[in-house]
Specification:
The complex is a heterodimer of chains A (about 400) and B (about 375). Chain A is about 50% helix and about 15% strand. With about 400 residues, chain A is α+β, with helices and mostly antiparallel strands. Chain A has three domains: about 120 residues, Acyl-CoA dehydrogenase/oxidase, N-terminal domain (Butyryl-Coa Dehydrogenase, subunit A, domain 1); about 100 residues, Butyryl-CoA Dehydrogenase, subunit A, domain 2, CATH 2.40.110.10; about 150 residues, Butyryl-CoA Dehydrogenase, subunit A, domain 3. In chain A, helix 8 runs antiparallel to helix 9 and helix 8 runs antiparallel to helix 10. Chain A is globular and about 80 Å long. In chain A, strands 2-3-7-6 form a four-stranded antiparallel β-sheet, with helices on one face. Chain B has about 375 residues and is α+β, with helices and mostly antiparallel strands. Chain B has three domains: about 100 residues, Acyl-CoA dehydrogenase/oxidase, N-terminal domain (Butyryl-Coa Dehydrogenase, subunit A, domain 1), CATH 1.10.540.10; about 90 residues, Butyryl-CoA Dehydrogenase, subunit A, domain 2; about 150 residues, Up-down Bundle (Butyryl-CoA Dehydrogenase, subunit A, domain 3). Chain B has eleven helices and ten strands. Classes of the chains: A alpha+beta (about 400), B alpha+beta (about 375). At the A-B interface, helix 8, helix 9 and helix 10 of A face strand 3, strand 9, helix 8, helix 9 and helix 10 of B.
Chain lengths: ~400, ~375
Amino acid sequence: MDLFHDSPMFSGVRQMLGGFASKLIRPIAIKHDQEESMPWDLMKAAAGMGLTQTSIVDGRKQITGVDDSAGDPKKPQSMARLAVIGSEELAWGCAGICLAIGGSGLAASPVARMGTEEQKAEFRKLLAGSDEKGHIKVAAMALSEPGTGSDISGLATTATQDGDYWVIRGSKQWITNGQSAAVYVVWAQTDVNAGRAGVRGFLVARGTPGLVPGKKETKLGIRASETAQVHFEDCRVHKDMMLGIAGEASGGLADTKKMLDSTRPVVGAQATGIARAAYEFLLERVRGGSLHGTPMASHQHIMFELAEMQMEITASRMLAHRAAWMADHRLDNVMEASMAKAHGARTAQTVTTRAMTLLGEEALEPGHPVEKWYRDAKIYDIFEGTGQIQRRIIAKQLTGQNPT
Amino acid sequence: MDFKLDDEQQMIVQTIRKFAERDLRGWGPDADRAGAAPDRLVPVASELGFFLDAVPAANDGMLEGAYSHATRALRGYELGRGCAAMAALLETNVEPALAVGKWGSSNAKQALFGSLASGGLATTVHDSRGLLEITTDGEGLRVTGKLGPAPALAAATHVLVVAREAVFLLSTDAVKRDAITPSGWRAAKWATIHLDTKGVHGWNVLARGEQAKLVGDEILAWARVSLAARAAGVAASAMELAKHYANERVQFKQKIGSFESLIRLRDDGETAAITARLFALHAAWALDTNQPNAFDLASRARVVAGDAVAKATIDAVQIFGGYGFVNDYPVEKLMRDARAFEALHGDERFGRVLAEKANLAGGN
């Protein structure tokens, strides 16, 4: 089993993105956290390197030059492992910036998976060039709603057919890039009697009448990533913009759920990156620090905490890498993906909290990186399926039942 | 054994609870966003007896007889349920006033009590890592190093410094302060001070040498009990808010409060908050009655309360889900506020380990 991904391709990506995070992300992370602003210039640079993930829509080769869509379908892929390796590095730099860079990928993924060639072309067209501020264009995946956080099957946003158009009504909540997006992938119920099968995705361009970007949220963490409400007030969308093929099962909520399954190891790896950042900061402090004249590294109280952190970080990383390896080998990894996500989130919260306590008053100062990582870590136990949802998935795999 | 509050304590709890629930909770979100308490805080709190409750009546204060740490812990818990930042401001004068009242020279008393009676604030800083350089200068001291970050330091006229070598009162006159607004307790007027061979008059030195450890331990025991009581209040508040939300929010066609995993999360948080409150009250009683293990209990109470507030606030955000992560809802503030309870005055667990090692090395 390839647990350590020590091929030149994997180590090269780790090195390259680690350098990118260290040289370009870290120096601006606190500024964007404090200003609650998107790092547009860096996002442009990242897009140039193929890091924004929208490239998967047009089948372009990723930064490694690897094209998993080509060749022998029985041969193991590499993208899942590359994604977890790269995500840990970027989130080590700053989770908010990592999410800002990858935010459009959330929308690109269903388009790549379910869209027709025409829809993919439209998506590409809408994201081409710059906006009126000179920023690169970004996309938004509009799924969650005020009443549906964990329970995405209970969407209240509706799409009603009117001739060649669908009329979308409803509000979306916690939408990454919700205010700035040039294109939205919106999920709405097309048939209230069809339950989950009636939920379909639509491509909606910015400026479409009835599409109203809402309030930007002030958040606990990941503040470099924009989160906003989006409202749809009788928003008319041409029928050709409904993802997949009308009347067929593809393009529905089931595909969306599969897509969320595939992102969980990546999210777990990002959480691991936050934990590693806090651990490394503390280790550096301990190496050079003294306490009432004695080296900090001579104290078991501190060193055993660091040892514990290192154990948990390594365990989280290996869970994410195992789930990714299984995905690359086309093995069912539903349980392993949830374990990776849940464990990574727990590790990030535990490590950042303990690191703050050990650092004492120092970590209370404004702009202290460990305090920022403490705030950033919490979202990893909430978004993309809460810790409770992950345990529910794992538990269902054990007995076949959904415990309540 | 009697856990029943006396009539005066019941009246104080009811009054402060009303103040905390109506005023502090109401003002808290805006104070947090602005990084400043509302102007109304001082007059309203003064009416309730804050700021001068530890200043002797003979010095224009309100203290007659012995100070009651049990009563302070009862009110601290209620204040914590209201707003941690404003609670810190309301409690900040107690340690300096009690310490100067007990060990201070007449000059120190005159300076501090005069300032507090005129509406001034004082605060306490513990040099938990031994970062201050303190040298003797005749009867006085010379101090170099960094103080803080500490709440109320941006507004304080005096700082009570607790260091290994000495305990002293420092006037902030002519001292440059860097006001800061941290992520938690944002309205608590934080600052840091960099001292460069700052002189401290002999009359402002409360204790030095061996005596400094004894005096410092007692002052920190007062502070630890107060911190523990307020932390327990924040933990309780987090769970109250989470319970209310969980009993309204519906997911998967049932109230999320009926999922066993969330019941347990909340139940554990409530248990921790109740435990922390009782422990803080027990330690306060031990201080009031001069029990030999009072300082140890105060330290342990802070460990328990620190764990409780850390867990309860993180879990409250978890129960609120996506809403817990945004500033429109109250629990993300509580999660930010939680950190200062463990960070101020240093890592309590580590302090206990070091103290025990010192005891063993000394053959105790």
